[in-house]
Amino acid sequence: MSAVLRKPKTFKLRSLHSEKKFGVAGRSCEEVLRKGCQHLQLPIPGSRLCLYEDGTELTGDYFRSAPDNSELVLLTAGQTWQGFVSDISRFLSVFQEPHAGVIQAARQLLSDERSPLRQKLLADLLGTVSENIAAETRAEDPPWFEGLESRFRSKSGYLRYSCESRIRSYLREVTSGASLVGAEAREEYLRLVGSMQQKLQAAQYNSSYFDRGAKAGRRLCTPEGWFSCQGPFDVDDCTSRHSINPYSNRESRVLFSTWNLDHVIEKKRAVVPTLAAAVHDAEGREVDWEYFYRLLFTLENLKLVHIACHKKTSHKLHCDPSRVYCTPAASRRKRPARQRP
């Protein structure tokens, strides 16, 4: 039996599977438990009280020091509570199989809410539970395709196009690098770029990187379409755990366009100038264009990063001098045929 206080302590009480709370006051732990069981129509034998915050059981010894208006959870025999992390787990389970009731409740709360922070949280929740991730075609998810040309009939098709457009833009920048070499070496530079273009065409411009239907190792996302930020160029991972699924809804598709395929060894500051210098200084040696191809267009040197993780300062990284030129044997094996005019 716990000590009985002269002045009642007040608590906010709820059952394990209910969000509704009610006030209860008592001079002892037993009195609060009895009143709670009566209100919730639960059996007293085997029942106990725990703090909502961390799951600490409210006993007679702790009752005296418990703050007024503490939130309690009333548990019956066999039930457990690990603190608010239990609520978070239940909250996250909603996203696995969202149903109409959840969506309607979120919409109702949002329409009545005035706090900007709570509005943001509710809007994010509503956007998440309303996602149609599994849908792939325009017919299955028309809102996803709003603003896109009618030629795009599937989500994967559009995202392949999006990735290909980025890679094509890199190729254009490399081509413009011909201006960095003199006229006598320009033909050789453009021949090497042409070889890269042929390889890209054969690989469909590595558009599979954004295609959730591509084979593992050829895509940057999960089979469901989730992409994770790989962190800034100078770290191994994203400490902010940025992630996005552009297959889920139109807003995520648009936001994904702000993510970057960042060159670890920078394209403009390092790779293209080194390629141009290698062609200029070749003196009969064969430039290893496949090495530059991998740096410019493949995951050997590309990282997918959230805009907040995209550092635009100089990376101060350089190409490997020992890989700029082919060895004599490799040169004979790799040298592409010259294009006929």
Automatic annotation (TrEMBL):
Principal localization reads: cytoplasm
Q: Tell me the GO BP annotations in alphabetical order.
A: apoptotic DNA fragmentation
Answer whether the UniProt record assigns the keyword Membrane to this protein. no
Question: InterPro entries in the record, alphabetically?
Answer: CIDE-N_dom (IPR003508), DFF40 (IPR039729), DFF40_C (IPR015311), His-Me_finger_sf (IPR044925)
One Pfam assignment: CIDE-N
* Keyword Nuclease applies: yes
Q: What GO CC terms are in its UniProt record?
A: cytoplasm; nucleus
What keywords tag this UniProt record? Apoptosis, Cytoplasm, Hydrolase, Nuclease, Nucleus
Localisation per UniProt entry: Cytoplasm; Nucleus
Signal sequence coordinates: none
Functional description taken from the UniProt entry: Nuclease that induces DNA fragmentation and chromatin condensation during apoptosis. Degrades naked DNA and induces apoptotic morphology.
Q: How does it assemble?
A: Heterodimer of DFFA and DFFB. Interacts with H1-1.
Q: What is this protein called?
A: DNA fragmentation factor subunit beta
Q: Which organism is it from?
A: Ovis ammon polii
